[in-house]
Amino acid sequence: MVKEGYYFGLPPLVLSGVAFLAHWILVAILLLCLAAFVFYFFRDPERVIPSEPGAVVSPADGRVVVVTDEDYAGSPGKRISIFLAIWNVHVNRSPAAGTILKMDYRPGKFLAAMMARASTENEQNVISLSTASGEMVFKQIAGLIARRVVCWKKAGDIVMRGERIGLVRFGSRVDLWVPRDAEILVTLGDNVKGGSSVLARWAVPAGSKVSSKSDARTPVENLTAGIKRA
C-alpha cells in the first residue's frame, strides 16, 4: 500500500474505534467499512515487468477506451487512453526506461474520465520521457471523482520500465502517446495492468544506448531488485 493510504485510511479507522467505545455500532461499522475501502483503494501490488527490448508497458491498470492516430507537438503518432475505475489499482508506472525530460502540470476541469474531452480539458500532469527508442509522452488525468494528481518524480529523474511514478486519487484516466512507427498491441476494451501489460512495441535503433539497466534484467530481477517504492 502507498503511504497515501495511511493518511486517508487511519482517521476513519480510529474514529471507528471511538464509535465502538461509545456504543454507536452502526456508525462504527460504516467507518470501518470506509477505512477498509480506502486501504484497498491504495493497494500497491508487485508486478513482473517484461524485459524484451522495445516493449512499452501500460502506465496504469484499467480498460483501454481509446486507440487513435493523434499528432503531438506537430509529430504524428498514436494515443492510447486507459480508464481507471474506482476498483482498479491507481498507482501509475513508467511505460519505458528513460529520463524524464519535462513535467507539465496543467490545472483544468474534472469531467468524467470516460469523456473524450477529459484528455485535453481535465487537470493533468504531462510527462515527457526520453527512451532508447525516442521520446514518448504520458499523462496522469484527473476525473470526475479524482481531485488530486500525485507524481513522485521530477524532470531529470531516470526511471526504469514499470517503475512507480505516482497516482491519481479516486478514479481517473491515463493517456500514452507514442510516435506512429510504434506497433500498437492493444484494442478497445482490453483490460490492462500497469507495469506488466505490453501496450506497444517500439523498436530500439541499432547502436542506441539503453537508458536504464531495467531493460537488461529478467522479469524476476526487475521484481526483486529493479522495482522500488518512491
Structural commentary:
With 230 residues, the protein is α+β, with helices and mostly antiparallel strands. The chain has helices at 4-21, 25-41, 118-121, 219-226, and strands at 55-57, 62-69, 77-84, 91-93, 98-106, 124-130, 135-142, 149-151, 158-159, 164-168, 172-179, 183-184, 191-192, 198-201. The strands form three sheets. The protein has an eight-stranded antiparallel beta sheet with strand order 9-5-6-7-11-3-2-13. It has a three-stranded antiparallel beta sheet with strand order 1-14-12, with no helix packed on it. Strand 2 and strand 3 (77-84) form a beta hairpin. The longest helix is centred in the N-terminal third of the chain and has 18 residues, at 4-21. Residues 210-230 have low confidence and may be disordered.
